[in-house]
């Protein structure tokens, strides 16, 4: 069984399940008011890898990830651009899915939109008021965090230091700096929903607790997101569930930061300004490979260099796939459907089951690539195919597609290869050898195949 680090206990623990064979997971999605950034790309890839690996391991996974389609940033942008909040949200949700599709991130089973669940959120807030753990002020309704047992569990810091670090706010009606808005009273001109405690809109922390419990039920298995969500967002989701007396997520998983050389993200520094920018300027698969190269809890550096390095790794995978005419499946793969080297598959699963040791799992795949190439060079097609199929299958388990047809060969190179085929047909071996030398000088490995000159890049 998979063992995963749990933020609440700070330990790597078995992922125990509410229902045998089934995994229910909730991953906080984006607020759609701008283009997705690199951090969005990382967390969606990390949890896509986890989801696919659970499917590979034979589990039935229910994956819920929300869209926050009402919030201060959306309201501000709509106002600035003279259009409705719904138009802004729709536009940037479109960019979101374009990016997700390009990354090969599977669509969630459910994508709740905050605006569709406001009724349930109002009910929840009313219950919290009735229980005496929430209070109304002139600008909304707040949760009284001092009344919540174990508040600060996820943050993992003493309450004093959390209080000292809390943002100083203008509202002096708050009873503690850690209390947070469940409901925000509408200011003039803002969109609002009617509620018994005054017209307004729900706070972000209320959205996720309501939608996750409604769609997955109490005691669901796993709640995930980026490290930046651990506190206060996830702490505050949990606080509401505790205050309601509800069994919430049993396991908390958070992925590490995205670093950009300690510099502000800027194109002039050779970095990517957004996920959309990265996907337009590099092989989209390269970001997944880069993410897999680090443990999910460690920080990663995303620069043009680390992405280019990942592209070189992809070229090695594609090159082997081309030599063996293999293509990985796009749909999630199950272990039971993968024929390959059983001992290697077992080692791969042992690494993944140990808190998703993806860097080591990748190293194992690249060892397979080297062995398969050696076997091919030695003419052992059968062994090469078995090793290659294992490598491509394990890539698929991680959502990394490998494409036999991916290598682009420029027109000049193709012309040289065709000229060589012609020379060989005419038995002009001196000319054929000269053309081979030209191709080799251009960095190609030239092979004779039944279809003529075969080309691949040096490993
Ligand atoms: Zn959330």
From TrEMBL:
Molecular function terms, GO-annotated: ATP binding; cysteine-tRNA ligase activity; metal ion binding
Cofactor list: Zn(2+)
EC id: 6.1.1.16
GO CC annotations, alphabetized: cytosol
InterPro entries per the UniProt record, alphabetical: Cys-tRNA-ligase (IPR015803), Cys-tRNA-synt_Ia_DALR (IPR015273), Cys-tRNA/MSH_ligase (IPR024909), CysS_C (IPR056411), Rossmann-like_a/b/a_fold (IPR014729), tRNA-synt_1_cat_dom (IPR032678), tRNAsynth_Ia_anticodon-bd (IPR009080)
Cysteinyl-tRNA synthetase class Ia DALR domain location: 347-409
Pfam hit, one: CysS_C
UniProt xrefs under Gene3D superfamilies: Cysteine-tRNA ligase, C-terminal anti-codon recognition domain (1.20.120.1910), HUPs (3.40.50.620)
Gene Ontology terms describing biological process: cysteinyl-tRNA aminoacylation
Main EC class the enzyme belongs to: ligase
Keywords carried by this UniProt record: Aminoacyl-tRNA synthetase, ATP-binding, Cytoplasm, Ligase, Metal-binding, Nucleotide-binding, Protein biosynthesis, Zinc
Family note: Belongs to the class-I aminoacyl-tRNA synthetase family.
HAMAP family linked: Cys_tRNA_synth
NCBIfam families the UniProt entry points to: cysS
Name of the protein in question: cysteine--tRNA ligase
